[in-house]
C-alpha cells in the first residue's frame, strides 16, 4: 500500500516555495542554471480516516489526535512553507452508507468533542460511546500536517466482539492487502471502506483462500458515496465454504478510500487488522508479546511465482529458527498459514520472513494472529508486516502503565530517539536514545512524560544505522482477560523531496 499522504496542493505549494531561488545571475544580468540538490520540505496537507469503532452498545472509544513538535530539521516554521498563518487538524463524522446485503444503519452520533489539535507537541483526546458512533474523516494543514496521527482505541467489555481494539487512522489510498482475515463461522470480519472526497468511489474486494480465489457474489464493485463509510461483511461476498485463513485485497476502480479490517472471534475476542506493508521479498512483523499463548502466521504471494520463506524469530539476544516451523511454502495466488506452537519462551520478539533462496525474492504480504491468555480468558490482536521507520513515526494514546515498545533491527545495528510527548492534560516531554543491536529485538517500557496527566504519544526517530521496525503494545486487563492491542509504527512521511528549479524564469520577463 502506498499510504500517500501528500496532496497535489502540498506539491504545488512546495514547488512554489523553491521556484525562483535555484538560479544564479551572471554579472551581465543573464540567468545561469545551477545544479542544486533536491530540498526536503514539510507536507502541507494530509488526510486520515477512522472506521466506525463498534457495533456494541457498551463500547467505549477514545480518539487521540497528535502532531509531533518540530525538530528543526526539515520541519515547518510557525507559518509553514507556504506562508499560511493558520493551520488546523480536525476530525468530522462521515455519513453511514448502506451496507451491501444489510439494512441501513442507525443514524450515527458524533464524538462528545471534536479531536482537534491546536498546536504541535500536545495530544488532544475525545470520547464516544455506544454502537452508533460514525466513521470519521480528517484533514490537517499547515504546521499541523507533518506527522499528524490519530489513534482510535475501543474497550468493549462484553459480547461477541469484546476486547481492546486499537488502530491508527489510515490515509486514503487505492490498494490494500489484509492477510489473516477469515470467513469462518466463529468469525465476523468486516472491511470498513471510508471515502474522504467530494465524489463517489467504487471499490473491489477480492478474497483468496488456501485453494486460490474465492468466487465473488459482487461483480460491479462496491459504491462508497462521497464523505461516507461502508462496512462490508466478508462472508456475504462469496458463496464458497467458510475459510479459516483468507487474504483480502481491496482496490478502487475510481476514487480512493481508507480501508481497515475489523475481526471478531466468538472465543478470542476482537481487534483491528490494518493493511500489510507493500508486497516485498522480506517481511518483518514486530512486537510479539513474551506471553503469547498462540501465534499464527498467514502469508500470500500476489505475483505469478511461488514463494519459499525462511521463518526466523528475532529475540533480544539474536535471531533463531523456531522449532515449530522453519519455512513456509506459499503458492502463487493462494493463502498459506502455519501455527507457530511454543514460539515464545518468556521472551518478546519479532518474526522475520526472508526468501530461502536469496536470488529468488518473491514478493509477499503477511500478518500474525496473536493470542494471549487461556480458556475463556483469551484475547486476540494482529500484527501486519511493517515497513521500516525511515525518518519518524508516532503511535498516540499511551497510558502511564501498560505500554510496551518493541524495536527490531533485522540487519545492521541502529540508533533511534524515543520521545514521549506532553500529556493530553499536562506533563513535560522526555526523550531517550536507544541502540538496537543487529539481528535483535529490543523490548522496553517506553519513557513517560514527567508529571503526566492524561495520555501521551510516542514518537520514534531513526538516527543512524540499519533499518528499524517498531510496534507498540497497549495492555488494559479487565475481569481476568489480558486485553491488549498492538500497533505498528508507520513512517509519517512528514517531508517530501522537491527538485530545485534549474532556472529562475522571473529574470527573463524583459
Structural commentary:
The chain has 510 residues and is mainly β. The protein is 2% helix and 46% strand. Strands 7-17-13-19-20 form a five-stranded mixed beta sheet, with no helix packed on it. A hairpin with a 5-residue loop joins strand 1 and strand 2 (31-33). The chain is globular, with a radius of gyration of 23 Å. The protein starts with 7 loop residues before the first helix and ends in a 12-residue tail after the last strand. Residues 2-33, 72-84 and 504-510 have low confidence and may be disordered.
The number of distinct β-strands equals 40
- Tell me the strand order in the biggest sheet: 7-17-13-19-20
Overall body shape: globular
Helix content: under 10%
Largest sheet: 5 strands, mixed
Main structural class: mainly beta
| Assembly context of the chains | single chain
| Helical stretch tally | 1
Poorly predicted tracts of residues: 2-33, 72-84, 504-510
What percentage of amino acids are in beta strands?
over 45%
Mean pLDDT: 87
Distance between the termini: 48 Å
Give a summary of the structure in a few sentences.
The chain is built from one helix and 40 strands. The protein has 510 residues and is mainly β. The strands form eleven sheets. It has a five-stranded mixed beta sheet with strand order 7-17-13-19-20, with no helix packed on it. Strands 12, 14, 15, 16 and 18 form a five-stranded antiparallel beta sheet that branches. Strands 21, 23, 24, 25 and 27 form a five-stranded antiparallel beta sheet that branches.
